[in-house]
Predict the structure.
Amino acid sequence: LAKFGKKVLLLEQHYIPGGCATAFKRKDFVMEVGLHEMDGLFEKDSKVKIFDFLEVNKNIQFEQVPELFRFVTRRVDFVFPHGTEHAFKTLSKKYPADKAGINKLFKLMNGALEEIAGFPTSKWKTALLYPILPLLFPNIVKASKNNLGDWMDKHIQNEDLKLILQGNLLYFHDDPYSMSLLYFSMAQASYIGGGGHFIKGGSQKLSDYLAKVINDNNGQVLLGKKVEQIIVKEGKVVGVIFKDAFDLSLSATEIYADVVIANAAVPLVANMLPSPFREILEKKTAHLQPSCSLISIYIGFKKAVKELGNAHYSTFVNGDDVQSLKDIKSNNKGRWENKTFIFVDYSQIDSGLTPEGKSFGVICAADYLAEWENLDVETYRNKKEEVAQIFFKRLEKIIPGIEEQIEYYEVGTAKTIQRYTSNPNGAPYGYAQTPDQSGMKRLPMQSPVKNLYFASAWTFPGGGFTGAIVSGFLCANEVRKSLKSKHEIEQIDEIKDERIVAFLEKRIVAENTIEIVFEKPKGFHFSPGQYVVLSLNNPKTNYLDLPFRSLSILSHPDENVLRFAMRLSASSFSKSCSEMAIGDRVTIYGPMGSFMLNDQNENIVFIAGGIGITPVVSLIKELKKRSHQGEVFLFYSNRNEVSAAYHILFQNISLTNFKYIPVYTETQSRINGNLLKNELQNFLDYNYFVVGTSGFTKSIQQTLITNGAKASSIKKDDFG
């Protein structure tokens, strides 16, 4: 729409654009959130024209993966190649008795893909052509009447072949007997015919570029802003009310527009509408079922996995209890020890995610919110760890030696997807792609309320990267047609983003450690101990990195600036921060976190490692302001005195009952139970604030509990 010349405002609740098309940085690794491989990018793929129009290929580099996938069971080890003809010959050679069935499936899939380009997207056109649809679109009509499992049972005899043909089912759905044959056919034909592709540097590159297209074409992208209400007047949508997603103290903003397009999950959109429009949309969608979710274990490896003998990009490992298509659904909902999973080895291509010599990979399987939603924080964390170890052991059997090469890992569940995208049930694919919820039976782009449209995985044509991209383009065309040449709403100026502030100064506060100071955003309120996401608007370099970090706030709320401290490293973010000039702009998203003081005069023990001291500085300043009367201990671990940031501050601070215990690991033992027992009379008498790396905080927590501290008295700030 921005390229069409329309004035566009994009409101996104997260501090990065993209939803599941994003990435995050851990240690040396840029970790891809959602993209394994994007289908197509050949003459039959509608994305090609969309990308040409948006000049995506001039700005984004696509890397083709070597083959569609490797498929592994106890009985079969098969590599599914790219290319329709090559795939047909390879499958027919291995399963000659089913050659006719393979041919029939390939003809159906490719026919549906070719026909979809001319298929009408509006229901009135479909109704008008209904009598002759079987003549004009025979493959679409055939496919729309069937589910994948039943069709295969009718036309394919060999059970292993059936499993291979839908080996990547989890890219779309979790059950072949409720999988729309139509959606599967179009997507799979595109995967086979055009191959799979990865975006070099991660899918965040594409999301960032599309946001740039809006900004460069007289539009505006506001991140960290959450729409709370959709404004309806005289029966039609005229705007939205949004708030800052993090600073809840800020007032809401009303904005008016000719059209509102909702990319959010449709059930959430209904909750934003006033009555009776909420009930109208709820009634229209009440019968629709969401898709399954996914668990992803993101892994950074010490070396390239391909050096361990793995030769394949995507490996689908079937559970031992899957003997036929009928076993797939129960397996996907079954025990982790036997659940079918995917391993993606990004070292097989030039992924742009890791430095030379290291690599990134993902283990992925079906997941469901019910598995996680009622667990407390500690149980949830422990269960994620348990599941990760189960999958590592299983992966070791496929790629011997891979376990010992794991440097870092992180687990994202259905609960994680729900947290970051707000999708109900953590459903990344929107409504499930069943025969009754796909094709022309899928929710249309135009809502029941005038001037409100949908463009997402939840609407036509469906989920996945291709589905969402096509949905957005089709919706843009619908909106373009609907908008009159004369705007009903007066054009607005760009909204001033008060979160964009200037860099003021930096100074060295310890060996290899700098303090950086920025203007404080207008109306910004925070509590000591909280953190923000600091995003560099124009980073000096962004090689193998992302231009943002979560940083604890060093300054006290009474100061009129924001201070942060960080260790210098070889990362592009660190280099960009160290090279900032006065006046350079950053965007502050926040505040976030609950690493905060209670109100009473409690006895407090701070235990910090390295740069983890940052939030403690603000917390101790707050205790001083309150004239805190309880005991306060600070155990501060560093390699040596010159690496201890704010050491002199703590030596000289005037706070009643405060004791500072620096620990230098070059010459002393690390913080341990004996040291703590020498200083603390009774571990039950204190509340604890522990901050540092994952290993540090976990070790300290265990030491405290072993010595009698209650788990409920321990707050942790774990920065990886």
